[in-house]
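REQUEST FORM: STRUCTURE PREDICTION
Request ID: SP-0412
Submitted by: Lab K.M.
Chain count: 1
Length (residues): 108
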Amino acid sequence: MNALTLPEPIAAYFAAEHDPDALAHCFTADAVMNDVGRTLAGIDAIKTFMAEASAKYNATSVPFSIEQQGEIHVVRADVAGDFPRSPVVLTYGFRLEHGLIARLEVTV
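STATUS: Completed
RESULT:
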């Protein structure tokens, strides 16, 4: 199986999925994250949400595809954890600025 090559901030995001402090370093200060309909603005809100989600769902994400759609990097990942319908394929839309994630849209 070929390894998927992700841009550095996106690779760092997936590598740090259970480390909210490390995840916070992947985002711009004024980043916006929309996770399946819930909008979070700013590092503190994103970090808090990710810590709660990690503790509650203990999910692991394995990216398997990436494509560029304009300025958005669209990554699809297999996600498994302690939640209904696990495992599921999620789509992550990343907009990068200055080597960090400025916007992230997560959809089913």
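NOTES: DSSP finds three helices and six strands in the chain.
Reviewed by: T.R.
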